[in-house]
Amino acid sequence: MCSIEEDVAKKLHVSEDKKCCKCKTSRSTILIRHNELCKECFVYQMYSKYKTIVTKCNVTKNVLIAFSGGFCSRAMVHLSMKPYREDPARRKMLDFTMCFVDDRFINDFDDASEDMYKELATMSKAQFCDYAKSCFNLKDDEIKAFLINNPYLYQSVIRRIIVEKAKEASCSFALFGDSATKTAANILANVSDGRGFSLPLDTGISDPSEQNLMIVRPMSDHIEKEISLYCHFEGLKPSEYFVKDSSTNTHSLTMNFIRGLDKDFPSTVSTVVRTGLKVTTGIINSTNPCCKFCGRKRQGNDSEWSKAITIASISKEAVENSHTDGDVCFGCIRMKK
């Protein structure tokens, strides 16, 4: 995302002779997916897409917003508070809580984490809402390296913490700031990692798997380019705590692939996301037990699936011993190898 901010000026398409395709009056200054827009129409379009998803999921009150300090979460907070900033009378009805998960053990940014707490407290006061924080610290270097190299499990830990905080605060909804670009990358990465069964919950607009809590992704129709431009126009800057991911795992490589492809083919992200949304696996109504690692429902016969694609000619006994976990999903079995 840092590279996106640096190239913001290049993404502002200035056309002296063309009008905005929405209002037909103002001069277009932005090019998004072959659509030339003026600044006012672009900002309105951002809020309109956000509101469409929020309304579709019936998000009303008792809402927790997952805040990381990056572009997406900042834009999500700003869009969530837009009606209340414009109408002071509605602030009495405001029922939002922002949650920040302190994962400083990954990057060892103690000072940045403390600055993040101060910023979050200031932001919450300005937005007239409460905020919650959670911190988990691991001193075991092996576990730390394991989570860094397995972003799906790392995100599962973050999701679990946010869900618990939402339930403690008696929230009915939890908003996650996953952009369309991130969702597209997660769809491809999860399928390649053998996690296709949980795809509707991991990448869908909503996740109803938690009891008395609905996880909603209201930014899932916004690509990174749109979000970076919106933050640029609104003066929203990412925290120093939010750093660019330099790891080389499957998810990071897929994200870089999607970003590069989307530059030349602007419909790439939307095509992958809409195709992924059509996937149905039956996990929502599944009564199968959950995986002891990632917490998602298992498809069933996961060990048998793993055995079927395993080359066992080197040591048959070693391969058989590696599939003794009957309570681990197929994706986690592959991860353990």
Automatic annotation (TrEMBL):
* Record family assignment: Belongs to the CTU2/NCS2 family.
What is the role of this chain? Plays a central role in 2-thiolation of mcm(5)S(2)U at tRNA wobble positions of tRNA(Lys), tRNA(Glu) and tRNA(Gln). May act by forming a heterodimer with NCS6 that ligates sulfur from thiocarboxylated URM1 onto the uridine of tRNAs at wobble position. Prior mcm(5) tRNA modification by the elongator complex is required for 2-thiolation. May also be involved in protein urmylation.
**tRNA processing is among the record's keywords:** yes
- A single GO CC term, please? cytosol
Q: Give the keywords, sorted.
A: Cytoplasm, tRNA processing
Question: Which Pfam families does the protein's record reference?
Answer: CTU2
- SUPFAM superfamilies, A to Z: Adenine nucleotide alpha hydrolases-like (SSF52402)
The name this protein goes by in its record: Cytoplasmic tRNA 2-thiolation protein 2
**GO terms under biological process:** protein urmylation; tRNA wobble position uridine thiolation
Q: In which pathway does it act?
A: tRNA modification; 5-methoxycarbonylmethyl-2-thiouridine-tRNA biosynthesis
Name its cellular compartments: Cytoplasm
Q: Which GO terms describe its molecular function?
A: nucleotidyltransferase activity; sulfurtransferase activity; tRNA binding
Q: Does the keyword Cytoplasm apply?
A: yes
Which InterPro entries does the entry mention? CTU2, Rossmann-like_a/b/a_fold
HAMAP family from the xrefs? Answer: CTU2
